[in-house]
Amino acid sequence: MSVVLFKRYRMERKLRWLPAVPDLPPGYFWVPWDRAVLPDHAEVHYRAFSQELDAQLFPSFADYCGCQLLLQNISTSPYFLPQATWLIACATECCGTVQCSSFVAGQGTIQNVGVVPAHRGKGLGKALVLQALHAFRQLGFHRAVLEVTAENTPAYQLYQSLGFRTVQTLYRAPSP
Ligand SMILES: CC(C)(COP(=O)(O)OP(=O)(O)OC[C@H]1O[C@@H](n2cnc3c(N)ncnc32)[C@H](O)[C@@H]1OP(=O)(O)O)[C@@H](O)C(=O)NCCC(=O)NCCS
Questions:
Q1: pTM for the complete prediction?
Q2: Angle (deg, nearest 10), helices 124-138 and 153-161
């Protein structure tokens, strides 16, 4: 049986110089991490990823319960960084999520960033990544890392535009 492998880039960025976190567009606001907002992160994650390429690599992304379990696993891990995990919301709903951890001393990992389709193209993805990078720097970290699927052009361009550079190419099989 043949398995489809997904080409992924590991990207890194030093944290010495960072652009400021942009003001959010009118009507949007930041929501810091709290256990009470775990279901909101899970819902935004589901709505942002369920129809996207990454849901083929991580089948749990295509299922709301799977996203809830993922958020539970991330947020109860000893590597979780609540300071770098944020939601963006507006009056009617939550619209964007970034979730972060630190697996290596001095290094922050952006695990997931997602914006609900109706709210894309307004600078929320960029704001989420920069908010996480500033939190990493406040923690004294020197480097940010992430992985992105090579064909995910919006995400790849977002990271490139923020100074991330590809340091490794990986081929990953879909999670069971
Ligand atoms: C990737 C994602 C978070 C971008 O969110 P967004 O709020 O639309 O992004 P922004 O409006 O902040 O755009 C910032 C930059 O990203 C890049 N970008 C965003 N959408 C793009 C698109 N459709 N095509 C090409 N580049 C794009 C551009 O460089 C853009 O800068 P510009 O507006 O100056 O051209 C969003 O598309 C998403 O949630 N995708 C599904 C989940 C996902 O794949 N997440 C990444 C996993 S690694």
A1: 0.97
A2: 50
Pick the CATH number of 6-172 from 3.40.630.30, 3.40.50.2300, 2.40.33.20, 3.60.20.10: 3.40.630.30
Site of tokens 């290596």: 104
Which residues have CB under 6 Å of ligand 1?
Answer: 48-49, 52, 54, 113-115, 120-126, 148, 152-155, 157-158, 161
pLDDT digits (tens, 9 = 90+) for 109-129: 999 999 999 999 999 999 999
| Amino acid code (one letter) for 170 | L
**Ligand 1 atom nearest 119 alpha carbon:** 7
Residue 114 Cα: closest atom of ligand 1: 39
Q: Which atom of ligand 1 sits closest to the CA of residue 158? A: 16
